[in-house]
Design a protein that fits this description.
273 residues; alpha+beta; Phosphorylase Kinase, domain 1; 2 domains; binds adenosine-5'-diphosphate; binds magnesium ion
Length: 273
């Protein structure tokens, strides 16, 4: 979806934002991501501010607005991992969230990268966190269209559920900062690891390496292997369906292929592992 520029926003929206941050000289678009209608760094007289926003559809909350509201609701519960939400502007059919700006780069998940240790630390912390009441999505519902029984994925852990390398920012001091809490859900803790696997495969890890890496987490090691097989299959099948419904979107085909690679590996595993 093409993203809007600062000048495309209606004047009342720009006025309301400038009440928060002072005069705005422009917006530097975010380098990645595609969920919000506008995303980037505002060059404001009070300093840089990261902004994400979406337009309502005929006064209704569309899925983008819903994701932003979800992200805003969760933000206070995931400090200090998430950049702090500073303000919200709801004006002239737009919802904008203003976040503390973080000077950082995207994580590198390639084998041997030092960022993998940072990722592991973040995951270990999240694995121990119960989802606060503000988290309303139930992760297992994602697979209801392809599975009769999704209870193996249900639970009360906090799952970011979208830890792709563009959502894990690394500051020059090596500190991790996790962004994009739009799909944060409650579920079984091992599901966070399962959802990360396609990104590790994409970065060049082999399925064997990924399997060894996941096994170090107690939630994974303690889960019935047939549940892990089931999700591997359901993930691949969901993306295969989405990709065949939308063949012009290359990232859907890519997720389907990565999911299939992992599902094939699970099918070939020796019994009991
Ligand atoms: N608080 C922030 N400060 C600086 N850059 C950010 C901040 N939040 C996100 N970004 C950058 O913007 C990109 C897109 O933001 P994200 O929240 O992931 O939105 P999307 O839903 O569009 O993926 C991130 O990958 C990151 O590069
Ligand atoms: Mg993102």
């Amino acid at each position: 979806m093409p993203r809007s520029a600062w000048g495309d926003l209606p004047q009342p929206v720009r006025d309301a934002v400038q009440e928060q941050v002072g005069a705005v000289a422009g917006l530097v678009p975010a380098p990645s991501g595609n969920h919000a209608h506008i995303a980037g760094t505002l060059r404001a007289s009070s300093g840089p501010v990261f902004v994400k926003g979406a337009r309502k559809e005929a006064d209704r909350d569309g899925p983008e607005i819903w994701s932003l509201r979800n992200e805003a609701r969760i933000n206070p519960h995931v400090q200090p991992y998430a950049p702090r939400l500073l303000w919200t502007v709801e004006e002239a059919g737009w919802l904008l969230l203003g976040f503390e700006y973080v000077e950082a780069r995207h994580a590198d998940y390639t084998p041997g990268s030092p960022d993998l240790a940072v990722l592991t630390e973040v995951l270990e912390a999240f694995q121990a966190m119960a989802a606060p009441d503000a988290v309303v999505l139930q992760v297992e519902r994602r697979w209801q269209p392809v599975l009769a029984d999704v209870s193996a994925m249900a639970g009360g852990a906090l799952l970011h559920a979208d830890l792709n390398p563009a959502n894990l920012l690394i500051t020059p001091e090596g500190r991790a900062c996790v962004v994009d809490w739009a799909f944060t859900s409650r579920g079984a803790a091992w599901v966070e690891l399962a959802l990360l696997i396609p990104w590790l495969l994409k970065a060049g890890h082999s399925p064997d390496q990924v399997a060894r890496w996941s096994a170090r987490f107690p939630s994974w090691a303690g889960t019935d292997p047939t549940a892990i097989d089931l999700l591997a299959w359901a993930f691949a099948e969901s993306w295969r369906r989405r990709s065949s419904a939308d063949p012009a979107v290359p990232w859907k085909a890519e997720l389907a292929a990565l999911g299939q690679q992992w599902a094939d590996h699970r099918r070939a595993r020796p019994p009991g592992r």
